[in-house]
Amino acid sequence: MSAKVAVIGAGGLGSLVLGYLAGAGVGEIGVFDSGAVELSNLHRQLTYGTSDIGKLKTALVRQRLLEINGGIKVNAHEGLLTRENIKAAIERYDYIADCTDNFITRAAINRACLELKKTYVHGAVYQFEGQLAVFEPHSGPCLGCLAPGAENQENQACAEAGVMGPAAGAVASMQALEILKLILGLETLKGKFAMLDFRLSDFNVIELKKRPDCPACGSKAQLETRFAGAISLAMITPEELKTRLDSGTPPRLLDLRYGWEHDLVHIPGDAWTDFEELIKTGAGFGPEEELVLYCKGQSKSAAACRALRKKGFRKVFVLKGGIDAWAEKADKRMLRY
Ligand SMILES: [Zn+2]
Asked: Which CATH superfamily is domain 4-207 in?
């Protein structure tokens, strides 16, 4: 295959995506990373072993890929990608795989792909949850349409947040598949966003629309100020929420999990709310109401928060870490499941 693919991040997702691309015979592969192998990486980065600890990932992975397939070209790009250098770095590639673990780099990738008219395959994993999307920002929706505050979102690296190794493996396999399908001209997730909850085996795919007011690709966006005024995906910690619920002016707390989960255990004072209805219609809540959304982890509530922000809701917050974090930090006697 003569395609050229850049893989940004050679960690939990990237190291596996890279292996599949090399195995499939993708003609030229760019490996972008700035880190060395750490012991805490090994459970999800199976390309590396204990003897690699402390060595740079880019050089190691290049060597591994050439062992998998000696007939391909692999370029190791060591160093941090920034808004300033990313365009020059990825320009030679046809497809860009986002396997990074932070939103700042992600926003830079989005912007560069928009300007260079590249296809951008986004993958992310957090604990048991994954997400996947294929963007062609110059013609369809982009990361900014999905998450206007991408640059301001909580910037929690996988090492801190924790990732289930096989969850990273599942997302990486799907991400590699999307790239190979793009190369082969097959149907892909283009214009769609997949939310994967591996704990509940609950997988949702939603259609994305290009937003005229997107801070990145919208008609009013200025190239220089893209993302600058973006609204952040506001998080509230369990401790902060507890204080607010005990105050005289508590926010409305909405449980977005399934009904049976709510029946099993829930945070006192909340109201169960249908996720689909909330993101489609606002479920009867007003745009000026202060809402705190929670789910088991936080991917469902984060998706709902984005949807409500797009509808003009200004005071929507996500309970960081969901009911799991609440049980751990605010109510240790709560039933865990
Ligand atoms: Zn956009």
From this structure: NAD(P)-binding Rossmann-like Domain (3.40.50.720)
